[in-house]
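tool_call: predict_structure(chain=1)
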Amino acid sequence: MKDDLFEDVELATPSNTDTSVKDVIEDGSPLPTDPKWNDYVLSLFEENELFDKMPLTNGLRRVAELLMGRIVFSGPSQVFPPQSGNEIGRSTVVWKIQFEDGSTFCDVADSWEGNTDDMFCVYSTATAATRAEGRALRKALRLRVVAAEEVTKKDTAKIAQDISKKKGLDVSSSEYDSSGTMTGPQANFIDGKSKQLNVDAQKILKEVANVVNVSKTTKKQASDVIEKLNEYQQKKDTIPTDFIGYNQDWRN
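tool_result:
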């Protein structure tokens, strides 16, 4: 029969042919240049590696090795401890990280009583080191969010203002004149904290500080709003429902 024509023929397979099953599933992860990269990297963190949606440094280490390979060196390249022995001074640390492919990333961070929560500010050098490491890892991962250890509950702008007054600086003509226009750092802090809390900064400015025109917000009004945002961070259940929803155009 016709069907039996090739019954006794053995089809040979060339010896250099790989007949094993291949995994043809493509990795759908975005490239670092993709706008979705930031969200993709954050999705790799475990729940216990995040604090208020900000990555902890220990989580940054794990994810960095997951995406970039083994870390062959991670440590301080420069350390500047407090210079004064009778108060809690500023510590600054430069941190260096090198991966097995030779790529190297460095960053710097500081810690003092004005930008560190009270329970940690006595360990200013260690805190600065952790912050610097986190910043270097964020740079390596190209993340657009801060590490949890970089954030403080304190109003650093107000603290800096008080220090300037104590030193007898002419705050009436300096950056810390409360009647002057809201500073860039204040605006950036409000924006970052609003995004973190998922609230509308424009509505909070209007409700808390009676701001009608955001571009004319004073430093005092901005300081009041920063204080309120810090309160909301501590007691999220007190955030009015009308404020919910981050508004990236709140400055307009």
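agent: Residues 164 and 171 are 7 Å apart (CA to CA). Proceeding to next step.
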